[in-house]
Amino acid sequence: MKNKELTIARHQMHLTQRQVADRLGIRTTSYQRFESGMRVPRISTAIKLARILNSSVEYLFQSSTSETDMKDKKNGVNN
């Protein structure tokens, strides 16, 4: 599922995907996977990303976390 919050926050900061990726020190394709919902960043990357986008980790990844929790429960993984 696409991470709409991440895309919206980036647009509000008037940044391109490449600019955000450069500031994070990662490849543009890696960042694109975060926005497309294909990948969830490591917590250290998520924290940097929240700072770059003047937002919070909770806001940016609220739907990703919920989906991960649901998948874990479905697969019998307890946190």
What would the average pLDDT be, to the nearest integer?
A: 84
CATH topology: 434 Repressor (Amino-terminal Domain)
Topology order in helix (H) and strand (E) letters: HHHHHH
Per the principal axes of the C-alpha atoms, what is the gross shape?
globular
**What is the share of helical residues?**
55-70%
End-to-end C-alpha gap = 22 Å
CATH class: Mainly Alpha
What would you call the structural class? mainly alpha
Main β-sheet: number of strands, strand sense, barrel status?
none
What's the structural domain tally? 1
Give me the Rg, rounded. Answer: 13 Å
CATH architecture: Orthogonal Bundle
The low-confidence parts are 65-79
Query: CATH superfamily membership, which one?
Result: lambda repressor-like DNA-binding domains
Total helical elements: 6
Q: What is the percentage of strand-forming residues?
A: under 5%
How many strands?
0
What would you say about this model in short?
With 79 residues, the protein is an all-alpha fold.
Structure commentary:
Keywords: DNA-binding. Residues 6-60 form the HTH cro/C1-type domain. InterPro entries: Cro/C1-type_HTH (IPR001387), Lambda_DNA-bd_dom_sf (IPR010982). It comes from Limosilactobacillus fastidiosus. The protein starts with a helix and ends in a 5-residue tail after the last helix. Residues 65-79 have low confidence and may be disordered. The longest helix has 13 residues, at 62-74. The protein has helices at residues 4-12, 17-24, 28-36, 43-52, 57-60, 62-74. The chain has 79 residues and is mostly helical. It has a single domain, classed as lambda repressor-like DNA-binding domains (434 Repressor (Amino-terminal Domain)), CATH 1.10.260.40. The radius of gyration is 13 Å and the shape is globular.
